Amino acid sequence: MQIYIHRAFSTSRAGPDGVGNIRRLGAIRSPMIEALGQKRLIYVTGKGGVGKSTITAALGRALANQGKRTLIIETDAFSAMPDLLGIGKEVTGPDPAGENLWAENLEASECFVRTLTRFVPSERISRAVVQNKVARVFFNAAPSVNEFVILDQIFEEAERKEGGEFVYDHVIVDLPASGHAVTFLSVPQTLYGMMKVGPIAKRARQLADEIRDERRTAIVAVCLPEEMPVNETIELSENLRESLDRELTGVIINMVHSLPVDPSRREVFENVLSQLRDEGQVDEDSIHNADGPALSKLVAGNALALGWYDRDQHYLGLLKERVDAPVTPVPVIYDDSSVRIVDALAEQLTQPDGAENAAAS
After folding, report:
1. Are 255 and 54 in contact (CB under 8 A)?
2. Quick one: average pLDDT of 35-43?
3. Is 4-258+313-360 in CATH node 3.90.226.10?
4. Interstrand relation of 41-46 and 170-174 (parallel, antiparallel or unpaired)
5. Of 3, 129, 155, 194, which one is least surrounded by beta carbons within 10 A?
6. pLDDT tens across 196-238, in order?
7. Rounded CA gap, 278 and 291, in Å?
8. Which of 17 and 44 is assigned the larger pLDDT?
9. Do 254 and 330 touch, CB atoms closer than 8 A?
10. What is residue 28's predicted lDDT score, i.e. its pLDDT?
11. Residues 350, 358: contact at Cβ < 8 Å?
12. CA–CA separation, 197 vs 357, rounded Å?
């Protein structure tokens, strides 16, 4: 059986549990979910390959399990949410993804029509403009147009009301990779600086203010306990401060390995390991030697896992030292269903200190 790890989503469909059989977690809340529960807009970013979309899906599921009506928005031509949430079809949206949860994939061309319709007499004229070849070339070449109209529609969804009430309690956005996230989020501020007056400038100012407002808008970084993702997260935090005059709301450090031995017995284990190495019974190849003694392979495997744990704790400490935001670790989860991985991560993120305890145990 092929096993998937939650660094990225798997291509498998939902297992027999399906979307409907999620454990209900009642009023249990972790510090991360408690903090995000106060924000209407939640942007999630991270270096490519760290499990950003998986964590986005898990955050959505966790908030939905708390009874919060939650919309997950993607801005990529390729949508990850059908696999991660067990939707079973291409997402256009907003499409149902379980109780209290919806998913939507925003395309720049459709966002452009919706945004333009507010400034011209009709949608028909807006579509005619978008379909015009000369206009398409101009808008594709013009800096920041696609980003602006996508951010505009994200804000529209967050502010949408029916019967005088907000349709969604939370809108979670799966942003581009962290190397582009600050540029993406800075577009409204840049446009306002260029235009100053007019309806588009007014809207750009409104969007820029919303992104900077730490009371209503969260920016969450996802990373792995490895040098490059951690350094990029630290750089992201600094760039947000310099470009948008705001802080990260939180960091989720993904795939943190647990301590493979009882903490009180670690010294004993290390003494045994040293003795076996001195006797030539354990070396770097022991874990891969199919014909080797079981004890040697067991000790070598635990030594390898102990090295991973120490590395992860080093980078966890570095993040806590360098980033002015709460850092939440989540453990490695092995499963052949991306849906069950998301559900398990949602549970970890929702339990009070559950993620940190699981990663440290």
Report:
1. no
2. 95
3. no
4. parallel
5. 3
6. 888 889 999 999 999 999 999 999 999 999 999 999 999 999 9
7. 20
8. 44
9. yes
10. 44
11. no
12. 52
Place of tokens 């980078």: 315
Nearest to 42 by CA among 158, 183, 132: 158
Q: Is the pLDDT of residue 140 over 70?
A: no
Give pLDDT, residue 297.
81
- What is the identity of the amino acid at 167? V
Q: Give the model's pLDDT for residue 58.
A: 98
Q: Using the predicted structure, report yes or no on whether residue 285 has a pLDDT greater than 80.
A: no
**Higher-confidence residue: 126 or 76?**
76
Indicate if the alpha-carbon torsion angle 189, 209, 175, 359 is positive or negative: positive
Q: How far apart are CA 289 and CA 297, in angstroms?
A: 8
Check pLDDT > 60 for residue 10: no
- Cβ–Cβ under 8 Å, residues 299 and 283: no
Residue-wise pLDDT tens digits, 57-86: 999 999 999 999 999 999 987 899 999 999
341 and 349 in contact (C-beta within 8 Å)?
A: no
Q: What is the pLDDT of residues 346-358, one digit of tens each?
A: 999 988 764 455 4
Q: Where are the domains of the chain?
A: 4-258+313-360
Peptide bond preceding 31: is omega within 30 degrees of 0, i.e. cis?
Answer: no
